[in-house]
Amino acid sequence: MGTGRPARPPYNLNHLVACMLVVTFVVWLVHPAFDRCSLDSYDASTVTELDLKNCKLTVLPASISRFGVLRKLDLGNNRLSTLPAVLPSTLLTLFCLNNNFETIPPAIAELPHLRMLSFKSCRLRDVGVAPLPPSLVWLILTDNELVTLPDSLGRLTRMRKLMLANNHLASLPSSLAAMRELELLRLANNQLKELPAWLYELPRLTWLAIAGNPFVAPAPARAELPSVRFDELTFGTKLGEGTSSVVRQGLWHGVQVAIKLYKAALSSDGKNLDEVRASCTVDHPNDR
Questions:
Q1: SS3 260
Q2: Which residues are recorded as binding ATP (predicted)?
Q3: Quick one: pLDDT at residue 97?
């Protein structure tokens, strides 16, 4: 292969609108009704990443199984409630966020190399009957309707990041004590009445989010906090951005300040109001 880009396949751009195929370079494709479009027209032997976000999918074509070297599949922001019985066994990453799933489809259990799985902001009521692949390292189940978790999750002994915020969990299965590689656990905004004793024994756990649970006492209010009107602020350069907020340099009555703008009421660490309350209990030399 030369140093330039390979020739583009002869896609009919008159019928393409918003999906993306990644072959050896990024090709933007879009189809207004992709769930009626067959994947058979694409050379599945070279596609390693397939981005089908925002395609109004109600059904993922069974021909997805043809993509024998696919490593990443993004199905976010569609209308899916099921998946085909057979998915590419080469998948490492699968994103299904913001769909209509009520349970994790059994096809996920047949992905022996899967490392990252997201069903964030779906309608999950249970994790499903089939055990998840033990190869998983990241599992994102934030913003769902989960009340309980199965004991089978304890089989995921390679797990490093487990996101469970914004559900209805009242307890955690004791089998999770086997996740000795766990580094990050997000449990904020659930119904937990206590933290299990085994949680303190996880040797690699360094990030734990628990705000918004019944056992967590609310942060005390600070009556001296000033009231700030939005039109009193002057916004400047962006200082940083995360998944839940943007921080900008600003001015308030001539004083330099940092202004944090939240993108939504809930984040992967729970309610933003809980973060604000916690921040207000901490003193800083620059506090006025």
A1: strand
A2: 260
A3: 97
The model's pTM is 0.79
* 181, part of any domain: no
CB 55 within 8 A of CB 75: no
CATH number of the domain enclosing 256: 3.30.200.20
Please say whether the dihedral angle defined by the alpha carbons of residues 40, 41, 46 and 50, taken in this order, is positive or negative: negative
In a domain, 273, yes or no: yes
Residue 126 falls within a domain, yes or no?
Answer: no
Q: Report the number of distinct structural domains present in the chain.
A: 1
How many angstroms separate the CA atoms of 212 and 64, rounded? 40
Binding site per annotation, positions for ATP: 260
How far, in Å, CA of 137 to CA of 184, rounded? 11
Provide the annotated binding site: 260
What pLDDT does residue 22 have?
Answer: 44
Residue 15 has a pLDDT of 30
Give the position of tokens 């006492």: 217
Cβ burial 1-23 (10 Å sphere, 16+ → b, else e): eeeeeeeeeeeeeeebebbbbbb
Q: Is 257 helix (H, G, I), strand (E, B) or coil?
A: strand
* DSSP helix/strand/coil, 21: strand
What residues make up the domain containing 267?
Answer: 230-280
How far are the Cα atoms of 131, 246, 269 from residue 240, in angstroms, in the given order? Answer: 39, 6, 18
Q: CA torsion, points 115, 121, 124, 126, in degrees to nearest 10?
A: 50
In a domain, 267, yes or no: yes
Q: Give tens-digit pLDDT for 110-127.
A: 999 999 999 999 999 999
Q: What is the pLDDT of residue 25?
A: 33
The per-residue pLDDT for range 57-105, each reduced to its tens digit, is 999 999 999 999 999 999 999 999 999 999 999 999 999 999 999 999 9
The whole-angstrom separation of Cα 229 and Cα 237 is: 20
Distance CA 219, CA 275 (A): 9
